[in-house]
Amino acid sequence: MPSVVPAKRIVIVEDHTAIREMLVEILRVDPAYKIVGECGEGLQACQLCLELKPDLIVLDARLPGLSGVDILRRIGKQLKHTRVLVFSAYESPALVREMLEAGAHGFVEKTAGLSEFKKGLGTIAQGGTYFGPGIAALLRTVVANNGTNSGIETLTDREREILKLVAESHSTREIAQRLGISVKTVDNHRTNLMRKLNLHDVASLTRYSLEIGLIDHRA
């Protein structure tokens, strides 16, 4: 008799409750998968994934608490065999690049529909990579433009942290107090990250942070 392939253990990370519940219901009836966890907040997602060590994670790019990129950076070294499909309404060359560099194995835009989602999930579950049609077109554009990058990879961890707080409208003094550093140090980091990104005001930093999924200003 052929051996039975065990169901892939999966965690769903999606902050929109209706979408999360819909994905859970769709996958629950598929014998190829076993839902072992679900959540809608970034820090909780990190803890849940590290605790459960799933085979697969379905991950939104933008979440309260931590972004999808931040989650992948935190869990990547400890969950080397876990495969990740990003399922997001937000798509930009910078965001896709960030998610892939952080360890995602596939990216499907929510506008592509559930059939595309299931196709992508099945592909990464079998060890492949998968991109929805919109993401594939986006990646071709990046390649055509000589792989122009977002500049985020040039920032230090501290500069990324300060970028996020600046974009969330925290003052220099508030950032200094939150991080336990001096106002002058915050100013120095802010000057350096603006120079590296070639952005020169808070509005530009905020737009950039939204584009790459570092912050989320959804209502």
Describe the structure.
With 219 residues, the chain is an alpha/beta fold. It has two domains: 8-144, 3-Layer(aba) Sandwich (Rossmann fold), CATH 3.40.50; 152-211, Winged helix-like DNA-binding domain superfamily/Winged helix DNA-binding domain (Arc Repressor Mutant, subunit A). Helices cover 50% and strands 13% of the residues. The protein has ten helices and six strands. The protein has helices at 17-28, 42-52, 68-75, 93-102, 114-125, 133-144, 157-167, 172-179, 183-197, 202-211; strands at 8-13, 33-39, 56-59, 83-88, 106-109, 130-131. The protein has a six-stranded parallel sheet with strand order 2-1-3-4-5-6, with helices on both faces. Helix 1 links the parallel strand 1 and strand 2. Helix 7 packs across helix 9. The longest helix is centred in the last third of the chain and has 15 residues, at 183-197. It starts with 7 loop residues before the first strand and ends in an 8-residue tail after the last helix. The model has no long low-confidence stretch (mean pLDDT 85).
Total domain units: 2
Strand order of the largest sheet: 2-1-3-4-5-6
Distance between the termini: 54 Å
Share of helix, binned: 40-55%
- Overall geometry: elongated
The average pLDDT score comes to 85
CATH architecture of the largest domain: 3-Layer(aba) Sandwich
User: What about the largest sheet?
Assistant: 6 strands, parallel
The total strand number stands at: 6
Question: Any idea what the radius of gyration is?
Answer: 18 Å
Along the chain, the helix and strand elements come as EHEHEHEHEHEHHHHH
Strand content: 5-15%
DSSP helix count?
10
Question: Could you give me the name of the CATH homologous superfamily of the largest domain?
Answer: Response regulator
CATH class of the largest domain: Alpha Beta
Judged by helices, strands and strand pairing, the structural class is alpha/beta
**CATH fold-type name of the largest domain:** Rossmann fold
